[in-house]
Specification:
The complex is a heterodimer of chains A (527) and B (370). Chain A is mostly helical. Chain A is built from 21 helices and two strands. Chain B folds into two domains: 248 residues, P-loop containing nucleotide triphosphate hydrolases (Rossmann fold); 103 residues, OB fold (Dihydrolipoamide Acetyltransferase, E2P), CATH 2.40.50.140. Classes of the chains: A mainly alpha (527), B alpha+beta (370).
Chain lengths: 527, 370
């Protein structure tokens, strides 16, 4: 049989976009292994053991902490009816609106020697013992756990809400005790959701730069940044990057594999789900207290402090015209990047969902590379690429926008893909059948139907770009500061009041994105 | 009626009868297509369709009937053969006219009405290049034709299933296509509505003298709608004939069983007779004496009488209103279905004698024992 291999113009466009998006990473990998390796010998002996221990122990620690926080809150909310439940139900998503570096900078104040927590502790106990410094493993663990537990909460909540109660009842009808039911029926069925959330958390922790850099905790991302800025040692930075990306890739494939393995089909037909049980006043109070502590630590206290500092800064006249410039810079960069990303993502998502050939799927997967590319690595890739090949463009806004594209297109692409998948291809075929050409079909049929999903994708990418820190720090033109960069610079100097206004603004702007995220289907089902 | 000579049937490609001498509206010549994963493959399929005729592509799911339809519409590419409309090549291994240039209308299985457009805009979609006044007039004509006056401004989700289908038909016919394709048009309707819409569709097709191909897996639907029925199996066309011929002279035991209930009883040719478990049957075929065959008989052509010495026992009884379907188990274990008048009622386990009430039987060669 003759197989037609046709490369339509659209197909060609998709291939070029994917190639452009993956090229920088390939370049970094290439230079990492082909360069002069003699200089990097020390790296392996001195830095690597520490980096590995720190990164892995932080990932494990945060996993355990978020599992406890996320699962307990999700379980209580799906199983019990108490006063305040509706508030907590979405309240636990709010911490996602605080960028990790903002939370870290608030905690450098809160946990500092002589800070409010230490004072309270010493006042209560009468001792003059110190609490652990924020610039430590403990500090990083607390900040990262509070920052990421909502992911576990969202996935666990979806799993609990969709759990078919008939399984539980069937187990009890065979005489299983409550513990046996939990252990032998419940746990295996929600395990995919828990594992998926663990993967998410670990990927987040190993690629975070903002929090670990402010807490001066040596992980891979922070070390890469230091190699670039402190020692101008791109070779070592590239090697570390390659190592980090390889970990992330292995991790990603492990996740895919696991998802395929745990393909449980929970139900056919009607699902009976648990209805929340009313609980006693005392228990309700205990739950509220528990939730209040978590919420205050992850969202309430930081936001109150930010508001307080902002008001003080405002009163002291520290919010000047330069603040407007930073906002302008951030908005300009983010809006441009989100718009270009939408334009580039459309052909990729369209090809993969309408003509899912191996080539088109590969293009889409290529565009998703940004997922496993922590900010400093993406920055390094572009740094090396542009200084070697197009030095003229180095240090311009253009490079920064390319970095944002690579980094955040995956998030938008996911939203665009699901919007396109919801449009029945029959509708497009019907339009073609009625004499409409491809362009008219897209303009009159496909686009109106995906507009909402695409708007959400744009907004998501815009807000992610607003929060971007490491690539902006490394690639921005001289004197071109964004809100995120200002927060980080002021916070590094412990100028809490100066960092507060941009931080508060970013938190407020992020809230819509967080709700977009919470509407996503969080079930850990294979796609 | 002469029984079909099976040996001849098996070797000849079942070409549709050339009822009219004029040039065909649509002609498929030995087409092969469907190499995408998840689409059934169609192999070496040939069809001719005269203007104004309705042809039903009939077969079980996965037989390639929808792939064939989509190839005609231009949504699948051919790897061999060609498709001609009024003699002009639409598609071949090297030619692929895009769907929008084919002038072939299509009604999709789930109608594919544009959810963001009202009825009027849906119907007008294919009239993009028409003058505004002509377009408006044409939309009105189409809505009158399918009986949707007054619903112009409704959106698809505000319509019932039957109304949605009317919109889909009006939309497909509005740009005056040369022919119409319908993919399982009744599969989304409840049974009462299906019967009503069958009549409606027949009226519309007759009134507009539209040449049409309709895909279905329901033989009753095919018989009710079609001038010609093309039965497909595993990507191959197995028979293409008038509904009557398909029913009475199926070309294979697959067709026989797919088109309504059929009994197949093993037998051996003994000169003028076929020896079977229910007695000898007149043999009018030219199978050689001694060949093993399968005898195909419809349940309507078998009757029984209670008899203590009879070779069968009634195993089950299913009252169907105007008749009753009995299942009779013979001594060898062979099961035979026959239709009787509803009265008298015979009890289960009654021993019976079976008679064949027709000379019209079909013989198929018995497949070699494996």
């Amino acid at each position: 049989m003759v197989r037609h291999i046709q490369l339509s113009p659209l197909s060609l466009l998709g291939v070029s976009i994917a190639a452009l998006l993956t090229f920088p990473l390939a370049y970094v990998a290439f230079s990492a292994v082909t360069g002069d390796l003699s200089q990097t010998g020390n790296l392996w002996n001195t830095r690597l053991p520490e980096l590995l221990t720190n990164t892995i122990s932080l990932a494990v620690g945060v996993s355990i902490a978020t599992l406890i926080l996320g699962v307990s809150t999700a379980w209580i909310i799906t199983r019990y009816q108490f006063w305040g439940r509706a508030f907590w139900d979405w309240g636990f998503i709010l911490p996602l609106a605080i960028p990790s570096f903002v939370l870290a900078y608030v905690y450098t104040y809160v946990l500092d020697r002589g800070g409010p927590v230490e004072q309270a502790w010493q006042g209560l106990t009468g001792s003059d013992a110190h609490i652990p410094s924020p610039y430590s493993f403990t500090g990083a663990l607390v900040v990262m756990s509070l920052n990421t537990f909502p992911y576990v909460y969202l996935l666990a909540r979806a799993a609990f809400q969709n759990f078919n109660l008939s399984f539980e009842e069937a187990a009890q009808a065979t005489g299983a005790t409550r513990w046996e039911t939990f252990y032998r029926v419940y746990l295996p069925l929600i395990r995919p959701a828990l594992v998926a959330s663990m993967f998410l958390v670990v990927l987040y922790v190993v690629s975070d730069f903002g929090a670990v850099s402010l807490l001066r905790f040596q992980t891979f991302t922070y070390a890469i940044y230091q190699q670039i800025t402190g020692r101008f040692d791109y070779q070592s930075a590239a090697l570390l990057s390659l190592l980090l990306v390889s970990f992330a890739l292995v991790f990603l494939f492990a996740e895919r594999w696991f998802r395929k393995q745990s393909r449980f089909y929970q139900t056919s037909g009607q699902v009976r789900t648990a209805t929340p049980k009313p609980c006693s006043l005392a228990r309700g109070l205990a739950i509220n207290l528990f939730f209040f502590v978590i919420f205050a630590a992850a969202f309430g206290v930081p936001v109150v402090l930010l508001i307080q500092w902002t008001l003080t800064a405002w009163a002291e006249g520290e919010v000047g015209t330069s603040f407007g410039t930073y906002i302008g810079n951030s908005v300009f960069l983010s809006a441009t990047a989100a718009t270009v990303a939408l334009a580039l993502g459309t052909p990729l998502a369209y090809l993969a969902s309408r003509f899912p050939s191996k080539l088109h799927i590969a293009c889409l997967q290529g565009a998703y590379i940004g997922y496993v590319l922590p900010g400093p690595v993406a920055a390094l890739a572009l740094l090396m690429l542009f200084t070697d090949m197009i030095p003229l463009l180095y240090g311009t806004v253009f490079v920064l926008i390319v970095a944002y594209l690579i980094h955040y297109l995956p998030a938008g692409l996911q939203a665009m893909e699901s919007a396109l998948q919801q449009v029945n291809p029959n509708l497009e075929e019907a339009a073609r059948n009625l004499g409409a050409k491809g362009i008219r079909t897209f303009r009159q049929i496909t686009f109106p139907l995906v507009r909402k999903g695409f708007s959400a994708a744009w907004l998501l990418m815009f807000l992610l770009c607003m929060k971007e820190l490491p690539a902006t720090l490394l690639l921005r033109p001289v004197g071109f500061d964004t809100l995120a960069v200002r927060i980080w610079l002021e916070a590094s100097e412990e100028l809490y009041q100066l960092a507060a206004p941009p931080a508060l603004l970013i938190v407020i702007l992020s809230i819509p994105a967080v709700f977009l995220l919470s509407k996503k289907n969080w079930q850990a089902e294979p796609q | 009626m002469t029984p079909i000579l099976e040996s001849q049937r098996m070797n000849s490609v079942p070409l549709p009868p050339d009822t009219s001498s004029g040039p065909p509206m649509l002609e498929l010549r030995n087409i092969t297509c469907g190499y995408e994963p998840n689409t059934p493959t169609v192999r070496d399929l040939s069809l001719r369709l005269q203007p104004g005729n309705v042809l039903c592509l009939l077969g079980p799911s996965g037989c390639g009937k929808t792939t064939t339809l989509r190839a005609i519409a231009g949504f699948e590419q051919l790897s061999a053969g060609d498709i001609r409309l009024q003699g002009e090549v639409l598609a071949s291994a090297s030619v692929h006219l895009p769907p929008e240039q084919r002038r072939i209308g299509m009604v999709f299985q789930e109608y594919a009405l544009f959810p963001h457009m009202n009825v009027k805009d849906n119907v007008a979609f294919g009239l993009y290049h028409w003058q505004a006044a002509d377009r408006q007039a044409r939309v009105q004509v189409m809505l009158d034709l399918v009986g949707l006056q007054g619903l112009e401004l409704r959106f698809p989700h505000e319509l019932s299933g039957g109304q949605q289908q009317r919109v889909a038909i009006a939309r497909a016919l509005a740009p005056k296509p040369l022919m119409l394709l319908l993919d399982e048009p009744f599969s989304n309707l409840d049974p009462d509505m299906t019967i009503k819409m069958r009549k409606e569709l027949s009226r519309v097709l007759r009134q507009t003298q539209t040449t049409a191909i309709l895909v279905t897996h329901d033989h009753e639907e095919a018989f009710a709608m079609a001038d010609q029925v093309a039965v497909m199996h595993d990507g191959v066309l197995v028979q293409c004939d008038t509904p009557e011929t398909i029913y009475q002279q199926p070309s294979s035991s697959f067709v026989a069983e797919f088109i309504g209930q059929a009994n197949t009883i093993p037998g051996i040719i003994q000169n003028e007779h076929v020896e079977t478990e229910i007695g000898p049957i007149t043999n009018q075929s030219d199978f050689e004496s001694g060949s093993r065959v399968l005898v195909m008989i419809r349940p309507d052509d078998i009757q029984f009488t209670p008899s203590e010495t009879g070779p069968g026992r009634i195993e089950s009884r299913q009252f169907q209103g105007s008749q009753t379907l009995y299942a009779i188990r013979l001594q060898s274990g062979q099961l035979i279905h026959c239709c009787m008048k509803p009265i008298p009622v015979y009890n289960i386990e009654t021993p019976v004698m079976v008679h064949i009430t027709t000379s019209h039987i079909i013989l198929f060669p018995q497949p070699a024992l494996s």
